[in-house]
Design goal:
This protein is an alpha/beta fold. Helix content is about 35%, strand content about 20%. The chain has a single domain (about 10-240), classed as 3-Layer(aba) Sandwich (Carbamate kinase), CATH 3.40.1160.10. It is built from 8 helices and 11 strands. The longest helix is centred in the middle third of the chain and has 25 residues, at about 75-100.
Protein backbone atom coordinates (compact mmCIF):
# COMPACT_ATOMS: atom_id res chain seq x y z
CA UNK A 1 0.00 0.00 0.00
CA UNK A 2 1.15 3.58 -0.59
CA UNK A 3 2.34 5.82 2.22
CA UNK A 4 -0.86 7.87 1.87
CA UNK A 5 -3.07 4.82 2.34
CA UNK A 6 -4.11 3.02 5.52
CA UNK A 7 -1.20 1.99 7.73
CA UNK A 8 -1.08 -1.34 9.55
CA UNK A 9 -1.69 -1.36 13.28
CA UNK A 10 0.77 -4.25 13.73
CA UNK A 11 3.15 -6.19 11.50
CA UNK A 12 3.99 -9.20 13.68
CA UNK A 13 0.90 -10.88 15.09
CA UNK A 14 -0.13 -14.04 16.86
CA UNK A 15 -3.31 -15.48 15.36
CA UNK A 16 -5.29 -17.78 17.64
CA UNK A 17 -7.59 -20.12 15.75
CA UNK A 18 -10.07 -22.56 17.23
CA UNK A 19 -9.94 -26.11 15.99
CA UNK A 20 -13.54 -25.65 14.88
CA UNK A 21 -12.31 -23.04 12.38
CA UNK A 22 -10.89 -25.92 10.34
CA UNK A 23 -14.00 -28.10 10.66
CA UNK A 24 -16.27 -25.88 8.57
CA UNK A 25 -19.85 -27.02 8.21
CA UNK A 26 -18.92 -30.56 9.21
CA UNK A 27 -18.31 -29.51 12.81
CA UNK A 28 -15.70 -32.23 13.23
CA UNK A 29 -12.35 -33.06 11.65
CA UNK A 30 -10.90 -30.81 8.94
CA UNK A 31 -12.65 -29.46 5.87
CA UNK A 32 -10.57 -28.36 2.90
CA UNK A 33 -12.62 -25.26 2.10
CA UNK A 34 -12.54 -24.07 5.70
CA UNK A 35 -8.76 -24.37 5.81
CA UNK A 36 -8.37 -22.68 2.43
CA UNK A 37 -10.45 -19.68 3.53
CA UNK A 38 -8.06 -19.08 6.43
CA UNK A 39 -4.98 -19.66 4.29
CA UNK A 40 -6.14 -17.34 1.51
CA UNK A 41 -6.51 -14.49 4.00
CA UNK A 42 -3.01 -15.07 5.35
CA UNK A 43 -1.43 -15.57 1.91
CA UNK A 44 -2.71 -12.18 0.76
CA UNK A 45 -0.95 -10.43 3.63
CA UNK A 46 2.48 -12.09 3.59
CA UNK A 47 3.72 -10.08 0.56
CA UNK A 48 2.77 -6.90 2.44
CA UNK A 49 5.31 -7.65 5.14
CA UNK A 50 3.08 -9.12 7.84
CA UNK A 51 4.53 -11.85 10.04
CA UNK A 52 2.27 -14.53 11.48
CA UNK A 53 2.63 -16.89 14.37
CA UNK A 54 -0.40 -19.16 14.68
CA UNK A 55 -1.73 -21.20 17.59
CA UNK A 56 -4.61 -23.50 16.80
CA UNK A 57 -6.83 -25.47 19.14
CA UNK A 58 -7.80 -29.11 18.80
CA UNK A 59 -11.50 -29.06 19.66
CA UNK A 60 -12.53 -30.29 16.21
CA UNK A 61 -10.70 -33.55 16.96
CA UNK A 62 -10.52 -33.94 20.74
CA UNK A 63 -11.62 -31.87 23.73
CA UNK A 64 -9.44 -32.68 26.70
CA UNK A 65 -11.43 -30.77 29.31
CA UNK A 66 -14.78 -32.34 28.43
CA UNK A 67 -13.29 -35.83 28.29
CA UNK A 68 -11.55 -35.30 31.63
CA UNK A 69 -14.87 -34.20 33.10
CA UNK A 70 -16.29 -37.51 31.93
CA UNK A 71 -13.79 -39.46 34.02
CA UNK A 72 -10.47 -39.60 32.15
CA UNK A 73 -7.34 -38.46 33.95
CA UNK A 74 -7.04 -34.72 33.24
CA UNK A 75 -3.35 -34.78 32.33
CA UNK A 76 -3.87 -37.67 29.91
CA UNK A 77 -6.83 -35.90 28.30
CA UNK A 78 -4.84 -32.67 27.95
CA UNK A 79 -1.94 -34.46 26.27
CA UNK A 80 -4.38 -36.01 23.82
CA UNK A 81 -5.78 -32.54 23.13
CA UNK A 82 -2.26 -31.24 22.52
CA UNK A 83 -1.68 -33.98 19.97
CA UNK A 84 -4.89 -32.90 18.23
CA UNK A 85 -3.41 -29.40 17.84
CA UNK A 86 -0.40 -30.97 16.09
CA UNK A 87 -2.74 -32.66 13.60
CA UNK A 88 -4.48 -29.35 12.91
CA UNK A 89 -1.18 -27.53 12.52
CA UNK A 90 -0.02 -30.10 9.98
CA UNK A 91 -3.26 -29.69 7.99
CA UNK A 92 -2.88 -25.91 7.98
CA UNK A 93 0.82 -26.18 7.09
CA UNK A 94 0.02 -28.39 4.11
CA UNK A 95 -2.47 -25.88 2.71
CA UNK A 96 -0.13 -22.93 3.30
CA UNK A 97 2.65 -24.64 1.39
CA UNK A 98 0.24 -25.58 -1.43
CA UNK A 99 -0.66 -21.91 -1.73
CA UNK A 100 3.00 -20.90 -1.94
CA UNK A 101 3.37 -19.66 1.64
CA UNK A 102 6.50 -20.89 3.40
CA UNK A 103 5.64 -22.22 6.84
CA UNK A 104 7.04 -24.25 9.71
CA UNK A 105 5.37 -26.35 12.42
CA UNK A 106 6.97 -26.08 15.85
CA UNK A 107 5.73 -28.28 18.67
CA UNK A 108 6.10 -27.95 22.41
CA UNK A 109 5.87 -31.75 22.48
CA UNK A 110 8.80 -33.68 21.05
CA UNK A 111 7.63 -35.30 17.80
CA UNK A 112 10.75 -35.99 15.74
CA UNK A 113 10.23 -36.14 12.00
CA UNK A 114 6.82 -34.45 12.19
CA UNK A 115 7.48 -31.03 13.67
CA UNK A 116 10.43 -28.96 14.81
CA UNK A 117 10.85 -28.64 18.57
CA UNK A 118 9.90 -25.20 19.82
CA UNK A 119 13.02 -23.09 20.22
CA UNK A 120 12.39 -19.38 20.65
CA UNK A 121 15.41 -18.13 18.71
CA UNK A 122 14.63 -20.49 15.84
CA UNK A 123 11.01 -19.31 15.76
CA UNK A 124 12.21 -15.71 15.57
CA UNK A 125 14.52 -16.57 12.68
CA UNK A 126 11.66 -18.18 10.78
CA UNK A 127 9.50 -15.09 11.28
CA UNK A 128 12.31 -12.78 10.23
CA UNK A 129 12.55 -14.77 6.99
CA UNK A 130 8.85 -14.27 6.28
CA UNK A 131 7.74 -17.77 7.22
CA UNK A 132 4.46 -18.46 8.97
CA UNK A 133 5.14 -20.34 12.20
CA UNK A 134 2.52 -22.76 13.48
CA UNK A 135 2.90 -23.38 17.19
CA UNK A 136 1.46 -26.77 18.14
CA UNK A 137 1.32 -28.84 21.30
CA UNK A 138 0.11 -26.03 23.54
CA UNK A 139 2.67 -25.10 26.16
CA UNK A 140 3.81 -28.72 26.39
CA UNK A 141 2.20 -29.00 29.81
CA UNK A 142 -1.26 -30.19 30.87
CA UNK A 143 -3.77 -27.91 32.63
CA UNK A 144 -3.17 -24.95 30.28
CA UNK A 145 -5.54 -23.91 27.50
CA UNK A 146 -4.58 -23.02 23.95
CA UNK A 147 -5.62 -19.44 24.82
CA UNK A 148 -2.82 -19.35 27.36
CA UNK A 149 -0.47 -21.03 24.88
CA UNK A 150 -1.31 -18.32 22.35
CA UNK A 151 -0.42 -15.54 24.79
CA UNK A 152 2.80 -17.31 25.83
CA UNK A 153 3.89 -17.67 22.20
CA UNK A 154 2.88 -14.07 21.43
CA UNK A 155 5.22 -12.91 24.18
CA UNK A 156 7.93 -15.31 23.01
CA UNK A 157 7.95 -13.87 19.48
CA UNK A 158 7.52 -10.22 20.50
CA UNK A 159 4.14 -10.01 18.76
CA UNK A 160 2.51 -6.61 18.65
CA UNK A 161 -1.03 -7.94 18.73
CA UNK A 162 -2.98 -11.11 19.54
CA UNK A 163 -5.82 -11.86 17.15
CA UNK A 164 -8.46 -14.27 18.39
CA UNK A 165 -10.53 -15.59 15.49
CA UNK A 166 -14.06 -16.70 16.36
CA UNK A 167 -17.41 -17.32 14.66
CA UNK A 168 -19.09 -14.30 16.26
CA UNK A 169 -18.47 -10.59 15.72
CA UNK A 170 -16.60 -9.99 18.96
CA UNK A 171 -17.24 -9.98 22.70
CA UNK A 172 -20.84 -9.62 23.90
CA UNK A 173 -22.38 -9.11 27.31
CA UNK A 174 -24.25 -12.40 26.78
CA UNK A 175 -24.20 -15.30 24.34
CA UNK A 176 -25.52 -13.78 21.09
CA UNK A 177 -26.74 -17.18 19.91
CA UNK A 178 -29.17 -17.58 22.80
CA UNK A 179 -29.67 -13.85 23.51
CA UNK A 180 -30.57 -11.95 20.32
CA UNK A 181 -30.49 -8.65 22.25
CA UNK A 182 -26.89 -9.18 23.45
CA UNK A 183 -24.74 -6.05 23.21
CA UNK A 184 -21.43 -6.12 21.35
CA UNK A 185 -18.52 -4.42 23.10
CA UNK A 186 -16.25 -2.48 20.75
CA UNK A 187 -13.57 -1.74 23.36
CA UNK A 188 -12.74 -3.31 26.72
CA UNK A 189 -9.93 -3.10 29.20
CA UNK A 190 -8.36 -6.18 30.75
CA UNK A 191 -9.80 -5.52 34.20
CA UNK A 192 -13.39 -5.36 32.94
CA UNK A 193 -12.89 -8.66 31.16
CA UNK A 194 -11.63 -10.23 34.38
CA UNK A 195 -14.17 -8.59 36.71
CA UNK A 196 -17.19 -9.34 34.53
CA UNK A 197 -15.86 -12.80 33.56
CA UNK A 198 -16.43 -12.06 29.89
CA UNK A 199 -15.85 -14.90 27.44
CA UNK A 200 -12.75 -13.49 25.74
CA UNK A 201 -9.99 -15.86 26.81
CA UNK A 202 -9.38 -17.71 30.04
CA UNK A 203 -8.27 -15.57 32.97
CA UNK A 204 -4.63 -16.72 32.85
CA UNK A 205 -4.35 -15.62 29.21
CA UNK A 206 -5.98 -12.25 29.90
CA UNK A 207 -3.66 -11.58 32.85
CA UNK A 208 -0.62 -12.41 30.70
CA UNK A 209 -1.76 -9.98 28.01
CA UNK A 210 -2.40 -7.30 30.64
CA UNK A 211 0.94 -7.74 32.38
CA UNK A 212 2.86 -7.55 29.09
CA UNK A 213 0.82 -4.69 27.61
CA UNK A 214 -0.25 -6.94 24.74
CA UNK A 215 -3.44 -5.81 22.97
CA UNK A 216 -6.01 -8.34 21.86
CA UNK A 217 -8.63 -8.24 19.10
CA UNK A 218 -11.53 -10.69 19.01
CA UNK A 219 -13.25 -10.88 15.62
CA UNK A 220 -15.35 -13.02 13.28
CA UNK A 221 -12.99 -14.94 10.98
CA UNK A 222 -15.85 -16.17 8.79
CA UNK A 223 -16.32 -12.69 7.29
CA UNK A 224 -14.37 -12.46 4.00
CA UNK A 225 -11.41 -10.09 4.10
CA UNK A 226 -11.70 -9.45 7.83
CA UNK A 227 -8.09 -10.27 8.66
CA UNK A 228 -6.77 -7.60 6.31
CA UNK A 229 -9.34 -5.06 7.50
CA UNK A 230 -8.43 -5.62 11.14
CA UNK A 231 -4.71 -5.28 10.49
CA UNK A 232 -5.26 -2.04 8.62
CA UNK A 233 -7.22 -0.48 11.44
CA UNK A 234 -10.90 -1.31 10.92
CA UNK A 235 -13.16 -1.50 13.96
CA UNK A 236 -14.25 -5.10 13.24
CA UNK A 237 -14.61 -7.08 16.44
CA UNK A 238 -13.71 -6.08 19.97
CA UNK A 239 -10.44 -4.46 21.03
CA UNK A 240 -9.11 -5.42 24.46
CA UNK A 241 -6.25 -3.39 25.86
Amino acid sequence: MSDSGPQPIAKRVLLKLSGEALAGSAGFGVEREAIKQVVDEIAELIPEGFEFGIVIGGGNIFRGISVAADGMDRATADYMGMLATVMNALALHDMLEREGVEARVMSALGIDGIAEPFVRKRALRHLNKGRVVLFAGGTGNPYFTTDTAACVRAIDINAELVLKATKVDGVYNADPVTHPDAVLYKRLDYQQVLTDKLAVMDATAVVMCRDHGLPLRVFNMTRPGVLKRVLYGSDDGTHVG
